[in-house]
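**User:**
My hope is that you can spare some time for a protein that puzzles me. This is the protein in question:
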Amino acid sequence: MIPRPKLIAFDLDGTLLKTDKSVSDKTIFEISRLKDLGTKVVICTGRPKRTAEPVIKKLGLTEYAIMYNGAFLYSFKNEKEITCFGMNKLRVDQTISKVQEKFPEAMAAIETRDGWYTDPDYYKFRKLRSELSSEPTGVGNLADFITGDVIKLLFRHPHKKSSELATALTGLDVHGTWSFDSLLEVSGKNVTKANALRWLCNELNIAAKDVAAFGDQNNDKEMLAWAGFGVAVDNAVPEAKAVADFVTKSND
């Protein structure tokens, strides 16, 4: 373990949050203690801004937040976008076409600065499974909703796992990852939590050796490998544990 990290990055779901998505009082206390010691604490999550914001504000971590698996950096303290590594319409159209060419039943959705949008099949699939935590901003032909950068592209399939869907991305200028088996999350090439954290640390003049990172999923493994001290929780997937320097207790 490095003597005292200058910056600690935490994933949310499966790591800082309990399995029931709650935040323990102990976690809130420890986060506050780290801040009092002068350690910068940064959330690195695959969540979009709309679902990450309530948790981040509850934790009091409003200075910097890395969301959408590294595609979007934001300061809730200043209510200001720091930077965005989005995809243009052509890249999104090409990706959707190739994935659905290989897997015709694949359903798609997009995350943008303005909200999130789904194709009709994606919406019906989530609705039938009671998986909609909030209604999408729009449902229809995704090409009609793209007026600027797409921050993240999402794919689901009634039978295929995320890892199988990811095989359709070969040759495309994108990066695919997942935090659970039923959702493939696609960002621009080289967009990862690790690269976003590297970008932020360069801005803050903090070296990788002075960073600790905590995570549990496939979308955390690059971050755990990059940080000077990578920690996987006990409930982490094998891929995350394999690159971590240490395995700690589970998120519960």
Observations:
- Residues 79 and 204 are 19 Å apart (CA to CA).
- The mean pLDDT is 95.
